[in-house]
Write a structure and sequence with these properties.
This protein is of the alpha/beta class. 25% of the residues lie in helices and 25% in strands. The chain is built from eight helices and 19 strands. The strands form four sheets. It has an eight-stranded mixed beta sheet, sandwiched between helices. Strand 18 and strand 19 (346-350) form a beta hairpin. It is globular, with a radius of gyration of 21 Å. The chain starts with 7 loop residues before the first strand and ends in a 19-residue tail after the last helix. The relative contact order is 0.20. Bound molecules: flavin-adenine dinucleotide.
Length: 391
């Protein structure tokens, strides 16, 4: 693709979305600088479970997820580095209440070219023989999905961007966005240096709200802490959980992390694009730089207990120290990917709401296209204007 007008673009934030935006801009021949306050994947991207699936109720989320996963698959060819893509398949089960809706969504996602099938209850034991399938009527099975390594994928995209001519400034916190006369002018970094640009893409995740508020743009975001529980399963992790597993009945999910560890978590707090409007929004964090990054033992016990009826075999296993990460939640659990009205040349990617890794590379690509060319149709539902102004 060719940019309509040659521009100098700054991308702030090297999570999966910002890294991908910089990668694609550099690939298209646009002059781009990627600025990250620490290192690639230093924020929530690096704490992601990184489960991959195109199964979403909203078609645009499916499309972004499918494209994001496709980019992750291509990362070795595009960058010469690994994305740590583990193709073990993703299985998402539900009970009788949502079974027909699942079948319909699976048919729609398949009709768009994704490898996804409906598995009825009788077909499930061959995918995870140690599971007790009580309560599950049907599942979405995506055999070519699984999980990636979020650090590897993000670093690979940054490498690819650099190899294509992007300037990459790590350990460089942006102090503020610089605007004048209703236009973005660039950014000011912590030592006071100003870097000019006529386009800035702010891919700041949980840090979006404070940075944008400084220039009078009030984003309707909240930040939630989500713990990960690590279960010691030396040599048997893949036997116990051969696939990535999302449980719509028990509201939890898990995956093996290599051969020796299981990662278990709850998603009742959100993050799938399926949470109901009346669901509880707990574990709110005020300052994303000051939160409990570990996992408390009561959280670990509660999470393991929530799995016992499904996977009795984990009962005697030990618990390793876990870790927590942050979700940047929008009011409807879907991302905000848009031009900022009133500040020409400024674009935001935020509000990924705990499910933005799989689609992050596609979101970065689409946002980059929006910034230098035209807004892709797939971004229509993610406009900032769908929420009433705050602040
Ligand atoms: C525990 C957990 C589990 C998850 N599991 C999944 C999953 O299974 N599947 C899935 O699809 N998604 C999952 N997610 C969600 C996914 O990880 C996020 O949606 C996604 O990684 C967000 O990426 P991002 O690039 O938008 O933002 P971030 O990763 O938040 O990146 C923002 C970057 O901006 C940088 N930055 C901040 N302030 C500044 C500044 N002033 N100057 C310069 N740089 C700055 C930060 O250091 C950071 O690197 C999970 C998230 C968590 C926390």
């Amino acid at each position: 693709m060719t940019a309509k007008t040659p521009s100098e673009v700054i991308v702030v934030g090297a999570g999966i979305a910002g890294a991908a935006a910089a990668f694609f801009l550099a690939d298209w021949g646009v002059k781009v600088t990627l600025i990250e306050r620490h290192h690639p994947a230093a924020g929530p991207t690096g704490r992601s479970s990184a489960l991959l699936h195109a199964f979403y109720y909203m078609p645009e989320l499916s499309r972004l997820a499918a494209r994001g996963i496709d980019i992750l698959r291509q990362i070795p060819a595009l960058t010469g580095a690994s994305a740590g893509f583990n193709r073990i398949g993703n299985l998402w089960g539900t009970g009788p209440g949502a079974a027909q809706e699942f079948r319909d969504v699976i048919a729609r996602v398949r009709s768009e070219g994704c490898e996804i099938e409906t598995l009825e209850a009788s077909e499930l034991p061959r995918h995870a023989p140690d599971f007790n399938w009580d309560g599950i009527e049907v599942a979405a099975w995506e055999p070519t999905c699984g999980y990636a390594d979020s650090y590897s994928a993000t670093n690979a995209l940054v490498k690819g961007a650099r190899d294509r001519g992007a300037a990459v400034r790590l350990n460089t916190p942006v102090r503020r966005l610089v605007t004048a006369g209703g236009r973005i002018q660039g950014v000011e970094i912590e030592d006071g240096e100003r870097i000019g640009a006529d386009i800035v893409i702010a891919a700041l995740g949980v840090w979006s709200k404070p940075v944008l508020a400084e220039i009078g743009v009030h984003l309707p975001l909240t930040v939630e802490r989500h713990p990960h529980v690590l279960v010691e399963a030396a040599g048997i992790a893949r036997q116990i959980m051969p696939v990535c597993w999302v449980d719509d009945v028990l509201m939890n999910y898990g995956r093996p992390d290599g051969e020796d560890v299981l990662i278990l978590a709850s998603w009742s707090g959100g993050g799938t694009g399926l949470r109901g409007a009346d669901s509880e929004r707990g574990n709110l964090v005020g300052d994303p730089d000051d939160y409990n990054e570990g996992t408390e033992s009561d959280e670990a016990v509660a999470t393991v207990k929530s799995f016992l009826s499904r996977i009795p075999r984990i009962e005697p296993l030990g618990i390793r120290p876990g870790y927590s990460g942050l979700y940047d939640m929008s009011p409807d659990d879907n991302p905000i990917i848009d031009a900022v009205s009133g500040v020409d040349g400024l674009f935001v990617i935020c509000g990924s709401s705990g499910h933005g890794f799989k689609m992050g590379a596609a979101v970065g690509e689409a946002a980059a296209r929006m910034a230098v060319d035209e807004k892709p149709a797939v971004l229509a539902p993610f406009a900032m204007g769908r929420f009433p102004p705050t602040g």
